[in-house]
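Dissemination and training. As part of the outreach component of the grant, students in the summer workshop were shown how a complex can be specified as a set of sequence lines and then modelled as a single object. The example used during the hands-on session is reproduced here so that future cohorts can follow it. Participants entered these lines:
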Amino acid sequence: MPELPEVEIVKQSLNKKIKFKKIKKIIIKNRNLRFKIPDNFEKLVKNKIIKKVERFSKYIIINFKDDTFCLIHLGMSGTIHLVKKKEKNDFTNTSFYSSSKLPKKHNHIQIEFDRIKMIYNDPRRFGFFIFIKNKNDLIKRFSHLGPEPFFKKFNIRYILNSIKNKKKNIKNLLIDQSFVSGIGNIYASEILFLCKINPLRKVDALKLKECKKIIYYSRLVLNKSVIKGGSSIRDFKNISGKQGLFQKEFKVYQRGNLNCLKYKCKGMIKKIIISNRSTFFCNICQNN
DNA sequence: AAGAGGCCCTGATAGC
DNA sequence: TGCTATCAGGGCCTCT
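and obtained this result:
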C-alpha cells in the first residue's frame, strides 16, 4: 500500500482525529513486527498526550507533548484504522463500532483514547512501531535517508552529483531511499513514464534535461496522488474508509500488454523485472 | 564499496 | 473443489 502519498493521507487523518488526545490503554496482540515490540512499550506510551502527527518519507511520526515519539512504518501491508466508541467510558471491547471495515485478522496493536481507538493491522508484519525517547534519536533514525522530492535539496545540482560515475539504472535509483525518499515501486514507474526515460537507463548517461524532468515529474506525481487521496492497489483506503483515487490515474503500473496512453503513441506497455520488482514502461516512448 | 539479490511474512489470484 | 506456484506497495542485511 504505502508510498509517500498514502502515508501522507494517513498522517492527515490521524491529525484530524487523535491530535491532543491522551493514550488511555494499549493492547498488543502480536509483538513480532519487523522489530519486536519490547515488553515495556505499553508503559512508555501510556498516558502520553499527542501533540501532533507528522510524516517524513514513508514514516509516520507521533509526536507526544513531552517530546518523545512513536515512529510507525506501514511496511507493505500495514493499515491504520480508527474505531469510535459507542459509549463514553466503556472500555469493554464489545462497545466499539467501525467506521471503515475493520479486518478480522492481524489487528496487532490497539491504542485507546477517550472516545476513539486506533488499530494497527498488518498481515505481512513488515511494518513497525518504535518508541523514540528524544528528537536526537529520531533524527539519527532518518540519517540514512535522502531528501523528499519536494525539498529544495532535491535540486539539479544534487542529482548531477548523485549520478556521477554511478552504474545503476534509473529505476533502482528512484526507489533508493538514500537518494530520494518517499518514492516506491508504483510511482517510480509512473514518474519514468512521464519523463520518457527507459527504466533500465544507466544513471551516468542521463542528460541534464532528463534530470530536470525527474525533479519535475517526481513532484507532480506525488502531489497529484496526495490530492486524489492516495492510490488503491488492492485495498488502500484512507483512515475514514474512503478509497484513494490515484490508481485511476496509473499510466503504466499494472498495465502490462495494454496500449500506451500517451496521445498518438502506438506503443505497448511492457512489464519487466528489475531487482526482483515489477517495472512497467512503454516500448516506444520510453525506448532510449 | 557500490550494487544486486535474498529474505522477512501472509493472502489474493491464476493455473492445473 | 483443491492443490501449487507466483506475486504483492518496503527495507534491512549479506554477498560479490
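The first strand of chain A starts at residue 25 and ends at 28. Students were then asked to discuss how this feature might be tested experimentally.
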